[in-house]
């Protein structure tokens, strides 16, 4: 397995996260396996929680993550590969955001819902379209 260092990734400040008030936060970390992406997403959420104690912007960001469902994708396959994986990438978004509408069987393989950890919500898709995507690539 080879992880790629991406230099042009977009990073959200805690204040931007708090102001966006997302219903869903999607971690799409290009070049990282699902397991590695889960670990990094949990670390990012923990850091935001720690920032809550130190800065006003961190508090709002931690609250935003507690309210939002957190979805993590397999960055080795979806959202980072052109060609046939493009269809799977779209299926992952449909399934993660609106699992009640259409399931493709990708949950647990190409994406996971950390919503129960982050927001107290169960898996199975959100009924809203407001999402903030945190990714590299």
Strand order of the largest sheet: 3-2-1-4
Shape: globular
How many distinct folded domains?
A: 1
Gyration radius from CA atoms, angstroms: 14 Å
Given the structure, what is the number of helices?
5
Q: How can the largest sheet be summarized?
A: 4 strands, mixed
Indicate the proportion of strand residues: 5-15%
Q: What's the helix-strand series?
A: HEHHEHEHE
Average pLDDT taken over every residue? 77
Helix content range of the residues, please? Answer: 40-55%
Class from helix and strand fractions: alpha/beta
The tally of strands reads 4
What report would you give on this structure?
This protein has 137 residues and is α/β, with parallel strands linked by helices. The protein has one domain (14-136). The chain has helices at 14-20, 34-54, 56-67, 85-97, 115-118; strands at residues 24-29, 69-73, 111-113, 131-136. A 4-stranded mixed beta sheet has the order 3-2-1-4. The radius of gyration is 14 Å and the shape is globular. It starts with 13 loop residues before the first helix and ends with a strand.
